[in-house]
Amino acid sequence: MDDAADIAVVSFDKFINGGDAEKRAVAKQMYNAFSTVGWVYLKDHGIPQERVDEIFGLAKSFFDLPLEQKYTWRLKDAELNQGYTGDGDEANGGTDHKECYEHRRFKNPSCPTDVDVPGFRKTMDEFYGQCYVLGLKVLKCLAMAMELGEDFFDSITKRADPQLRLIRYPSIERKIVEQKGHARIIPHTDFGLCTLLFQDSIGGLEVDPFHTGDFKAALPVPGTVLINIADLMQRLTNDRFRSTMHRVVSPKASGDILPARYSIPFFIHPDPEALIDPILKDEGEVKKYEPVNAGEWRVRNTSSNYKMLPTAAA
Ligand SMILES: O=C(O)CCC(=O)C(=O)O
Ligand SMILES: [Fe+2]
Fold this sequence. Notes:
Layout: E1 9-11, H1 13-17, H2 20-34, E2 39-43, H3 49-63, H4 67-70, E3 83-85, E4 95-96, E5 99-103, H5 120-145, E6 163-169, E7 172-173, H6 174-177, E8 182-183, E9 185-188, E10 194-199, E11 205-208, E12 216-217, E13 225-229, H7 231-236, E14 245-248, E15 257-258, E16 261-268, E17 275-276, E18 292-293, H8 294-305
Parallel strand pairs: 1-2, 4-8
Antiparallel strand pairs: 2-13, 3-5, 5-6, 6-16, 7-15, 9-14, 10-13, 10-16, 11-12, 11-14, 17-18
Helix pairs in contact: 2-5, 3-5
The structure holds 2-oxoglutaric acid and fe (ii) ion (FE2).
């Protein structure tokens, strides 16, 4: 269809299991995608579909709990950035209609127990580990694509603590989401290194690859995980890789009441002490960005996204 974004489907099998030339061929495909639209659909990525389906099921069980109960796990602190946020808690220049649960690598004090949702913590921890392994492979592939040496990202991801997020966009009247300044999630870029994004079959995710306001659908493709570049990777690569705007709006093919939609992003950030300074490759190339400390960057961007945190920008 004309209004679908031109996002390549890339098989990761040859990067995971292939020889050097095969790995390089995958890295080249990634380079082409990330230096243009900024997104790929990755298939053969090694995370079994049954596991992904299980996490979507767990998300439904969690979000179906009563609101008062979900608020007992409310996210309280931008640095820990862990727990539940309700409809309206997160928005940066507009109104989102979604609820989220954030899970982290080292500490999850605001996490449902087995009494609340059987198997929640254990299964989330396991899935987190699988996303983490895939995420580090994606970084290796990006390092190869940029000719930085495969191990480039190892030194800045020793203590990396990505954010695994469950999202439910509740069933809602179309006219509410379609008001000016509202969306399921308003246009934004992600602010870490890169994101793995699993989506269900409902649709509504759109990307604006060239920042012209011309949003195109990133349609659900079964068996794939979307990978998108985020702001720190764009800065590090001095704009070679592009962190592009995206949003979630009403799916085209539904009536006046939108069905609920679920998605599961895994946001990869470098170690907090890492300095993200643009890498120059060409003679005469000039840095487009000042260096930034990854930890400060993350806390600043996180707190300015949440309306309810005391540290949020006024
Ligand atoms: O729900 C989606 O497909 C996108 C979510 C997203 O962009 C985000 O949480 O940053
Ligand atoms: Fe995003």
